[in-house]
Amino acid sequence: MKTYRKELWFNTKSRRAFLNITREIENCLKESNIEEGILLCNAMHITSSIFINDNETGLLNDFEIFLEKLAPEKPYDQYQHNGYEDNADAHLKRTIMGREVVVAITKGKLDFGPWEQIFYGEFDGKRNKRVLVKIIGE
After folding, report:
1. Which residues pair with 53 in a beta bridge?
2. In degrees rounded to 5, what are phi and psi of residue 103?
3. N or C: which end of the chain has fewer CB within 10 A?
4. CA angle 94-66-131, nearest 5°?
């Protein structure tokens, strides 16, 4: 059995963003030389997310609207967490969107359903954050 580990780094220019990182993950898979196995991809920060969905601009905008309704950024004083930082909403948004994805690897490819892509969701950006890619298999 082989293993592969790599950290990807992201720094968004805005507080919130959704980045399609499928190509970066596919590049990791190629580097690993693993043909059959499992790929784990997870956000290493508690205000960012990794999730799988369709790469459609309207849907990504809908996520932003949906998340802002559930956990609005402002007013900052609505959250007990806010004091030193003003990012309680980012913690809640991350919880909703999830921490990680696991994808099967078959014949050296990500074994996706139709339209599936991997996204990095940022909810408290403008600084460097890590994403872990771990691949296990043969």
Report:
1. 117
2. -130, 135
3. N
4. 25
Distances in Å between the alpha carbon of 68 and those of 1, 7, 50, 65? 43, 29, 18, 5
CA distance 120 to 60: 11
* The one-letter amino acid at 76: Y
Q: Nearest Cα to 14, choosing from 131, 118, 123, 135?
A: 123
pLDDT score of 84: 86
Distance CA 79, CA 73 (A): 9
- Pair of tokens at residue 128: 């460097």
Percent of the chain with pLDDT over 90: 99
Sketch the domain layout of the chain as residue ranges.
Answer: 23-137
Burial classification of residue 24, based on how many CB atoms lie within 10 Å of its CB (0-12 exposed, 13-18 middle, 19 or more buried) = middle
Which residue in the block uniquely carries the two structure tokens 């969701």?
121
CATH no. for 23-137 = 2.60.120.460
3-class state of residue 14 by DSSP = coil
Instruction: Report the C-alpha gap between 30 and 21 in whole angstroms.
Output: 15
pLDDT in tens, 82-117: 998 999 999 999 999 999 999 999 999 999 999 999
